[in-house]
Each structure stands twice: as structure tokens, then as C-alpha cells.
Amino acid sequence: MSEMNANQLIDHFFRTEYGKAVSHLTNRFGSGHLELAEDSVQDTLVKAMQTWPFGQVPDNPTGWILRVAGNRMIDQLRRLQKQTNEEIPEDSENLVEDVSLTEINDDMVKMMLACCHPTLSAEYQIILTLKILGGLSIREISTSLLKKEETVAKAYTRAKKKFKEDEIKLILPPANEVEKRLEMVLKIIYLLFNEGYKSAEGNILIREDLCAEAIRLNNVLLETELCNTPSANALMALMCFHSSRFDARVDESGEIISLEDQDRSKWNEELIAAGSRYLQRATDNDEVNDYVIQAAISSYHCNAASFEETQWSEILRLYDVQLQINPSPVIRLNRIIPMEKVHGSMLAYSEIEELEETGFFDTYYLFYAIKGGILQNLGEIKESATALKKAISLTKNDRELSYLNKKLEQLSAS
Fold first, then answer.
1. pTM (predicted TM-score)
2. Looking at the chain, which terminus has fewer C-beta neighbours within 10 angstroms, N or C?
């Protein structure tokens, strides 16, 4: 195997196996050694990076990672034992199953349900699970949550400390608690998908493997009667609709193509049809939730024959309903484009100004990119360029950076 292929394999395993390996070691040696499990897996992946490109890649790379990381953790625990006289935990399965959850045969989903422990705050649950099981970096998580990187790093440290101090056991919840935890698990799956749909950093826009993993995890939930809820079906619909546009979102060189300029013949009709089926299941009981609304909005985009024929008034109506359910600044920002299409740029700019005063989007590049576009439509070229430059300064993804720089060049030439 070439050095490039070996490094690609290692990167793939870091993205897909990191969380599974940490979960395995934490189960094996106890939740009190969570941080040591992380270190052992990271060291093992570094070792793979140093050796695989120049030798034989193991026939079973996953097994190799688990074995080497496990041995390294035992060595570290033995050193710790000499210092503290603490006994090394024997191999055990700490993930106790509730009889009602025996349908779930996926370790990652079980671990996600276990990690969403009510002793931890919602923020801690999200950050711990995205970092440990999702394998996302602190920077990627901070972008997903629209929080400062330093804030997320501190929260992650505090969450691990609380996890250890409270001696939280990684056990599956009883059936009557699953519904409460399922809401958080779905949110985490959605955040994982979003990071794959639009990567926070790096040289690619779409990480299809991460999106595929999010869809796989959600499908495991749908195969379990207890977890097959309207929200889970609506989230699957949303991910199918978004995934249907992958082939049209970037050109052959990986550069971004805006929704307005995408070749809609490249959209995946099978995924759009699947999204429609899941959305129908989600609304069979007339339940309205955040995922149902987002999926419905996405369905309008997917079923429009062209950008110009998009039913913007219906999309705006759905955003208004979503705001009533969840009055979030992010939803207000997402609502601005359909508002501009329906009511014009002046009203849209008034909304942008109100949002800017809150300070919520001070470090969010997309806010300034939207602001720049509205100002351009108003003929305020100088102010539009200023907003785009601000967006560029906040962008961490190379493809987003290239896209915004081209828009700035076009603006300067106009």
C-alpha cells in the first residue's frame, strides 16, 4: 500500500473508529479512566501513522487498533497502580442492557444513549459525545455550536472531570428514560451530519463518510420500536433531502456551487423520494416538531424545478412556525434569505441589523456572508465588500474561503 493510501486509511479510521475504540476501552476499564482511554487511542493512531505507510497494513486494522490501544492502556494503568496502589480494573462489560433495548444491536448507538446521562448538563452531553464518539475536534464542535473554541475546550475539560467525579456508569437507561435521552441523541446525530455536510475546516466541503455514519446511526434507531419516533423519521427525511444534492454542490475540483447555480439533474431522485417517505411517516400523527419543519423546508427546495420556481413564501411560512416553536437566533438568520425573496432586501437588512446588535453572530462567518449579499442587492457595494471581508476573516474551511474570495473579486469588478 502506498504512503498516501495508508495515510488516507488512517484518516478514515480516525474518523470512523476513534469513538468506537474509546467506547470499548472505557467499557472495559471503567468510566473513571475515560481520559486515559482517549490518550491510548490517540497514541495508537499516531503509531499507525508512523508505521503503516512504511510497512504492511494489518489485515484487521480495527482489531489492531483495539489490541494496541488496550495494551497501552494496561501499561499506563500498571504505572498508575505503582503510584497509587489502585487495582487495575478487570475486563468487564459495563454497558448493562435493559430488556426493552435488546433490539439495538449497535454499540455506537448504545454508547450514545449511555453518554447522554441526565447527571450531565445538555451542553456537556453534546460536547462529550461529539468529541469521544463522533471524533470531532474542539474547533469543529465550537463551530457546530456557534461557541468560542476556548469556551468549548473548557466545557470539555469540566465535563470529563464531572464524568469522573460523579462516577457515572455507562449503562443503558431503562425504557421510561429513553425518550428523554433520545432527543439529545438525535441532536448529536444531526450535528454530526451537519459537520459532514459542511466541514468547519480543511480542504473539502463535504465529508460524505461522516454524513453516511449519521444516517446509519439514525437508521439503527428507526429499526428499534422504542426509538422509531416522528422526530427520528423527520431527521432521516432531512438528511436524505440534504444528501440528495451532494453531487451538485461542488464541481470537479471541489469548488462550491451555490444552490442557485446547481445542475438539478444531478440531484439524487431516489434520496428525494426516500426523504418524502420518511417525512410522511413523521407527520402521520400530525406532530409538528423542529425536524419536521426543517425537513419540509428542504423538501420545497428539492422539489422545485428551478431556483426561481422555489416556493419562497411557503418556506418563509415554515420558518415563522419554527420560530414559534424554537425562537432561536440561528432560525432568524436562516429565515432572512426567504424573507428577502418574499419581502425585499430592505426588510431583510433590517432583520440583519437587529441580529447583529445581539452579538450572537460576532464570530460566525455565514452571518457576514449573508449580510454582504443583502448589501450587494441594495447596491451598497463598499459596505458589502466590508461584510464579505469580515466573513473571509472568520472562515476556516478552504473551500468556503475560495468561494467567498471569488464573490469579493466579482463584487470589486462590478
1. 0.83
2. C
